[in-house]
Specification:
Length: about 325
Amino acid sequence: MTTLDLIGSSPKFRAVMTDVERVAPVDSAVLIQGETGTGKEVIARAIHEASPRRSQRFVALNCAAIPSALLESELFGHERGAFTGACTQTQGRFQMADGGTLFLDEIGDMPLELQPKLLRALQEREFERLGSTRTVRVNVRVVAATNQDLDQLVAKKLFRADLFYRLNVIPIRLPPLRERVQDILPLTEFFVAKFAASLNKPIDSIPEEVIEVLKAHDWPGNIRELQNFIERAVLFSPGSVLRLPLDFKHTVKQSSESASRTLADADREHILETLKQTDWLIGGQDGAANRLGVPRTTLIYKMRKLGIEIRRSTRARPIRQLAAEECHATASC
Ligand SMILES: Nc1ncnc2c1ncn2[C@@H]1O[C@H](COP(=O)(O)OP(=O)(O)OP(=O)(O)O)[C@@H](O)[C@H]1O
Ligand SMILES: [Mg+2]
C-alpha cells in the first residue's frame, strides 16, 4: 500500500492499518494519538502516501519545537516588514502543503491564542499572511498528532473544544508497544536486518530467550526505543548471534490495573534513561537527541517542559554553548 516500512502483525496494528486505508482516500482531518515513539509520524506519512495527494507534498510542522511567537508565521507565512526581521515575503506551511498533506505534530502545544486562526484555516481553507489583508485559499488535508491527552486539555480549557472536534473527525489511537507484544518479533527481525546491513555486522540469528526478554520489557519509549536498543545490541554483539547489551535494564510490563503512570511520566523516564546512557550528552552523533530520533532543540524543549534539568556532560561542549541552544529552543529568547 505504501513505500514506507511499516512492520506489525498484531490485531491492534492491523486495525490501525485498516483505518489508514479507510481514511486515505478522503480529505477529512485525522487526529493520531499515542505515546511517544508509537509511530504517529510514520502513520501520518502512510495516510499521505496512500491518498490521492501522494504526488504532492507532505509538510510537517512540530508545534512544540517552534517558539510560540514564530508559530503563526510558520503556519501562515508573512509579508515583508510584518515584524522586525521579516526581510522578505515568506510562505507558511499551509501554503507549502497546498494540494498535499500538512502534518501538525504535537498539536497539544498549539498556543491557545493561535487556535481560532487555525480553526478558520481548517474550516474555510483560507487565511491571511501576517501583515497582509489579502486572503489566501489553499487545498490542504490536515493530519494532527499528539502524545498528550487532548480530552483532558479541553476539559482544563487549555485546548479549544471547537478545534478539537474539527481535528478529531477521524481519530486514530496508536497502542503502545507493550499492548502489541506480537509485533516485537517482526520489528526486532526488521531492525536487526536493517542495522546488520548498515553497521556491516553479520548477525544471522536471534536467540529465543532474547525475544522472550524483549517481549517482557515494557518499552516506555515504544518502537523508537526498541529500534535504538536493537541498533546498540547489533553493534555490541560479538559474533553472528544477537546478544543483549550487558547494561540492559529490564523493566517489566505493568498490569493494566497498576498502570497509573501518565504519558508525561513515561516520556520523562525514557528521556532520563537515554540521558544517563549518553552521560547527559544531548547533541551530536552520540547524543541523546540522536538516540531518541528528535532534533536537539526539541529534546531541550521537552526536558524543560518535563522539569528535567540540563546537566553538564563530561563529553559536552562548553556550558555557554548549551545555554545558547537552550535559549534557541524556547519562546522566551
Ligand atoms: N510500524 C513500524 N514499523 C517500523 N518502524 C516503525 C513503526 N512505527 C514506528 N517506527 C519507527 O519508530 C520510530 C518512531 O516513530 P515516529 O517518529 O513515527 O513516532 P512518534 O509516535 O511520532 O513519536 P514522538 O511522539 O516521540 O514524536 C521511527 O524511527 C519510525 O520509523
Ligand atoms: Mg512524532
